[in-house]
Amino acid sequence: FSVRKMIRFALDGVTAFSRVPLRAALYVGVLCGGMSFLLILHLLYVYLTGQALNGWTTLGVSILFIGGIQLVGLGIIGEYVGRIFEEVKQRPLYWVKSAINFEEHEEAPLLGPSSADVFMAPEAYTNKSKACPVRY
């Protein structure tokens, strides 16, 4: 295998079996948003105490805040995509490897009205001498 194919294989291995990379954008977005909020509080403190502020600090904080919001949105979309992916795979919730202390039985009968009960002739219900079918 070439290096390019090995890198593609590694990326497929990481992204095909886990939603962690999709959640990473959400976590990084929340982290960026939290950091920008703390920096905004610090900048307000510095401004209220009368110290000089550079113009780039407010620009950096606003870029960090907007980037955090975008990453949170991307993380939410990633969660949706991950859940859709899990649903599309249609894998069962549980796999039973073996059953212990269970006897094999025939298939259980279905409960509910049978087709004979549903499609009986109307005279079967009006004739009192015949028993009416039992419906569950």
TrEMBL record:
Localization, UniProt: Membrane
GO molecular function: glycosyltransferase activity
A GO cellular component entry from the record: plasma membrane
Membrane topology: Multi-pass membrane protein
Keywords attached to this entry: Glycosyltransferase, Membrane, Transferase, Transmembrane, Transmembrane helix
Residue spans crossing the bilayer: 24-47, 59-81
Protein name in UniProt: Glycosyltransferase, group 2 family protein
Higher taxonomy: Bacteria, Bacillati, Bacillota, Negativicutes, Veillonellales
